[in-house]
Amino acid sequence: MVSESICLAILQFVRGRSRTLTTTFGDAEPQKSVHQDAATDSDIYRHLLSRYDLADIDAAMRWLELGHYIGQSSATIRGPFWRELTDKGA
Fold it and tell me: For the chain, which terminus, N or C, has the lower number of CB atoms within 10 Å?
């Protein structure tokens, strides 16, 4: 069973964080894009592993994704990947 406290801890951790991505194509100037309310899976797990079991965190992450509270985003097909809060999760 998924614990509500783990789900809330995940949403609270992701809220307010940002991911800055710098991309360069050829000789063009690097372009930066900032994604608000975003964190990598490793950041989320690292933060929560001191309080919760890995299996419980996995279950909560899956439940939040299936419920459309968080979504996975990336800059390209190969990554890097991060989680962002959806409108429902914000």
Answer: N
